């Protein structure tokens, strides 16, 4: 097994045998910047645990948010019923009708809507209402007899500070969303108001971060599930924590456990621990939320292609690659998709 504390282990595969020495020297430097040795991983783990502990104790801009979610009961797999659910991600909105069978299995009818650039920039709430309206109409879903609305669960993949199981204030946008007049406001109220404007007979009765939704979904089929993790457009995680360790919790009942939303995309925003390169810095500097969600920008699907593009262009600018020539497409931000890296 290779010694992963030997930096050469990371560098040698990236050198070009027939390449000029100046190019290979730049590749050595670039690979060394991205390399993560065993010692560096241990340093990151220590910093991550310290940030978790601080975030559980009190809110701190330099620590992980560690947001209490008000979710305190584990699924057993025996729950039954049919429910409406919304899943707002960074790329798609899914509207679902979920039937729990009471035996750890479930069935799902869903429709996926690609979130338009216009929705990401201005009219997200109306876009959600329109999509839900289409789903209800196409599947002929109506409130139960004697009821005025259909109850709905809402997974929301952006950072919110929850004030109850059915309310939470948006703390910031990420994933390149910039919808105005939203930060600091209750996302359930904003969505509910759009439902009313579009005459959609739906009432949101629970709001969860998407990592919490992932945790609870897996927990229904596998009750021993301890953690839900998202690696997609963005990245985040949620896990079960003992209430006695959530010292910043102001509620009276401190027994049992609660799901905590780490919002780990915000880890090391001060860039003291992570292996931060000039290519990461260029991306961060040009992003709408400069200085925030640093970890997410280093590893998630929306950003990895842009980091690679920045690294490629740095070699082009030094006339070490493509004889110093780029292309109109390559010169535009976010045109080198992360999927290309997977293909390569």
Strand content: 15-25%
For the biggest sheet, the summary is: 5 strands, mixed
Instruction: Give the oligomeric state of the chains in this entry, treating copies of one chain as homo and distinct chains as hetero.
Output: single chain
- Radius of gyration, rounded? 23 Å
Q: What is the mean pLDDT?
A: 93
Give the helices and strands, then pairings.
Blueprint: H1 8-11, H2 21-34, H3 38-57, E1 67-68, E2 80-88, E3 92-101, E4 106-114, H4 117-138, E5 150-156, E6 160-164, E7 167-170, H5 187-197, E8 202-209, H6 210-221, E9 227-231, E10 235-242, E11 257-261, H7 278-286, H8 294-299, H9 301-317, H10 338-343
Helix pairs in contact: 4-5, 7-9
Please tell me about this protein's structure.
Strand 3 (92-101) and strand 4 (106-114) form a beta hairpin. It is globular, with a radius of gyration of 23 Å. 35% of the residues lie in helices and 21% in strands. The protein has 344 residues and is of the alpha+beta class. The chain has 10 helices and 11 strands.
Q: Which keywords apply here?
A:
5-stranded mixed β-sheet
Quick recap:
This protein is an alpha+beta fold. The chain has helices spanning 8-11, 21-34, 38-57, 117-138, 187-197, 210-221, 278-286, 294-299, 301-317, 338-343, and strands at residues 67-68, 80-88, 92-101, 106-114, 150-156, 160-164, 167-170, 202-209, 227-231, 235-242, 257-261.
């Amino acid at each position: 097994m290779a010694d992963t504390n030997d930096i050469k282990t990371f560098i040698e595969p990236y050198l070009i045998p027939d390449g000029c020495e100046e190019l290979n020297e730049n590749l050595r430097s670039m690979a060394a910047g991205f390399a993560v040795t065993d010692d560096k991983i241990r340093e990151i783990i220590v910093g991550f645990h310290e940030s978790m502990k601080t975030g559980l104790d009190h809110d701190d801009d330099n620590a992980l948010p560690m947001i209490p979610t008000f979710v305190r009961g584990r699924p057993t797999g025996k729950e039954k019923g049919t429910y409406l659910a919304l899943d707002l991600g960074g790329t798609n909105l899914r509207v679902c009708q979920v039937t729990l069978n009471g035996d750890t299995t479930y069935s799902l009818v869903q429709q996926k809507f690609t979130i338009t650039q216009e929705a990401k920039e201005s009219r997200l709430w109306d876009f959600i209402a329109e999509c839900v309206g289409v789903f209800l109409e196409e599947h002929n879903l109506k409130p139960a007899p004697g009821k005025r609305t259909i109850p709905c669960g809402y997974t929301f993949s952006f950072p919110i500070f929850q004030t109850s199981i059915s309310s939470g204030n948006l703390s910031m946008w990420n994933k390149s969303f910039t919808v105005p007049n939203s930060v600091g406001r209750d996302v359930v109220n904003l969505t509910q108001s759009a439902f009313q404007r579009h005459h959609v007979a739906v009432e949101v009765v629970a709001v969860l971060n998407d990592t919490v939704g992932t945790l609870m979904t897996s927990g229904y089929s596998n009750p021993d599930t301890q953690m839900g993790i998202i690696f997609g457009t963005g990245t985040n995680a949620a896990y079960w924590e003992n209430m006695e360790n959530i010292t910043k919790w102001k509620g009276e009942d401190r027994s049992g456990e609660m799901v905590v939303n780490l919002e780990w995309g915000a880890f090391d925003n001060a860039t003291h621990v992570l292996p931060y390169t000039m290519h990461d810095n260029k991306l961060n500097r040009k992003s709408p939320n400069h200085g925030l969600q640093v970890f997410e920008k280093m590893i998630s699907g929306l950003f990895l292609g842009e980091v690679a593009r920045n690294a490629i262009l740095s070699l082009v600018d030094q006339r070490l690659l493509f004889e110093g020539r780029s292309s109109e497409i390559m010169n535009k931000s976010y045109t080198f998709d992360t999927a290309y890296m997977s293909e390569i």
